Amino acid sequence: MSTNVSKSVTKVAPENGADKSSACKVALIGFGTVGRAVAKILCESGNQSLQLTHICNRNIARKKQEWVPAGVVWTEDVDSVLDSDVAIVIELIGGINPAEQIVRRALESGKSVVTANKQLIARHGPDLLQLAASNGVQLEFGASVAGGVPVLPALRAGLSGDRLHGIAGILNGTCNYILSRIESARIPFSEALEEAQARGYAEADASEDLDGGDARAKLAILALAGLHTQLTPESVRARTIRAVDAVDFDYAAQLGCTIRQISRADLNGDTLFAEVGPCLVPSDSAFGRVQRNLNLVLTSGQYGGDMAFLGAGAGGDPTAVAVVSDVMFVAAALSGGRREIASQVLRPIVSSDFETAWYLRFFVRDQPGIVARLAQILAAHHLNIDSLLQKPGFEKNSLPFVITLEPCRDSMLHPALEEMSGLEFATRPCLCLPILR
Ligand SMILES: NC(=O)c1ccc[n+]([C@@H]2O[C@H](COP(=O)([O-])OP(=O)(O)OC[C@H]3O[C@@H](n4cnc5c(N)ncnc54)[C@H](OP(=O)(O)O)[C@@H]3O)[C@@H](O)[C@H]2O)c1
Predict the structure, then answer these.
(1) CATH code for the domain of 395
(2) Is residue 202 a contact partner of residue 174, using CB atoms and an 8 Å limit?
(3) Phi then psi dihedrals of residue 92, to 5 deg
(4) CA of 232 to the centre of ligand 1 (A)
């Protein structure tokens, strides 16, 4: 299959500034936000062990920068890059097609690959890692989760001596920005979303972020790297943050909590409990303190206990640092003949049936007997009420109140929620959030 974008090569020159005859040759495919930042670091760092030889992008003419050394080839022709003698290909075009074919062809032709492409790794990571191993080369993807936060290198190297059983994180900066803005300003969800879009933290169509698609792809990669489990992003249940209202932060505060989009995976034997969605977390916890668009990942290991990784989850420069660090790691491995130790990958049963306490928020048209009716349904399903919260001052025709439940499995709660969904006094669907303590 040809991955040829076009056959025009706009500049070819044999040398790249300083004498780097023994340097590891590196090609960059994709000169956008991250690609440009990677090129800057490679060109400015003075690192003699790496030599940027090609920059490849569609419609390359408009991409050229005067700060790139004259010897670097600017091209639209992916084939010419893959046919060259570069040792490392950096894939930064994103998406599945044609990134997947480019990465496969690079690995098959004996080149190591560094990518920041979460969609590609979440869907094809195990397969591509195997392809890399069978061709005696490396595939690194440290920037694909949490941007500049070095959590993937930590999972694959620094924590590989532990037996990890749990990973939880705030993996989507857009959701965290929106939720922390609703929290601090008590503005409606729609206003917080508009603000995030105006500041460039959310795309015009932010569904992938808001509905959990982005975070569950990242969770699948973390589970692969840290828990050695192979799962598709689609097998992880994702709940949207769209239903979270400013009043939920008032009620959460009464419980000593706030609300964050949490991605979590717990391995128990052959079952991987995994889920992404808004959760109540204690305000003074590590998750509760994460503001704006930062990312946080917590890991739990059998021997090393808990670890935390916090920082900028996106942005050209922080992400480029992670990419260049991967390139340096691969270059060192190539010169030292070092190989990654392959670990066995489990194909787990993926379940979202966590046992937690629950927050149920109702909006109802006020009438006698509402609490008694809800309590009756919960009791019939053997669910225990922990507390009942009702703030004064709301209109009687759409009154928000909250019931919290003692810990129970999701599968026990679900039938009760189904039964409640048809109640005539409800003016909005019940919002049901796990409470993580
Ligand atoms: N930005 C971040 O903060 C961040 C954080 C973590 C991970 N990542 C990942 O890093 C990767 C790059 O992201 P980015 O933000 O740099 O994206 P971007 O700004 O959209 O850059 C992508 C570049 O690739 C080029 N391109 C796209 N399709 C191509 C094709 N078929 N052939 C040749 N060139 C092509 C684009 O050209 P045009 O200019 O013509 O569109 C653009 O220059 C993605 O996988 C992304 O998920 C990004």
Answers:
(1) 3.30.70.260
(2) yes
(3) -135, 35
(4) 23
Could you read off the pLDDT of 192-244 as tens digits, one per residue?
Answer: 999 999 998 898 999 999 999 999 999 999 999 999 999 999 999 999 999 99
Last residue of a domain, one of 90, 105, 140: 140
Owner of token pair 């920005």: 177
The domain total for the chain is 3
> Ligand 1: which of 10, 28, 34 to mutate, most ligand atoms within 8 Å of CB?
34
264 within domain boundaries: yes
Range of the domain at 283: 152-312
105/185 same-domain check: no
Q: Model-level pTM?
A: 0.88
Q: 3-class SS at 66?
A: coil
Query: Which pLDDT tens digit goes with each residue over 95-125?
Result: 999 999 999 999 999 999 999 999 999 999 9
**Among the three residues 140, 162, 189, which one is the final residue of a domain in this structure?**
140
Backbone angles phi, psi at 256, to 5 degrees: 75, 20
The answer, yes or no, to whether residue 5 has pLDDT greater than 80, is no
> Does ligand 1 come within 6 angstroms of the Cβ of 143?
yes
Select which of 20, 63, 118, 218 is catalytic. 218
The response to whether residue 323 sits with its C-beta less than 6 Å from ligand 1 reads no
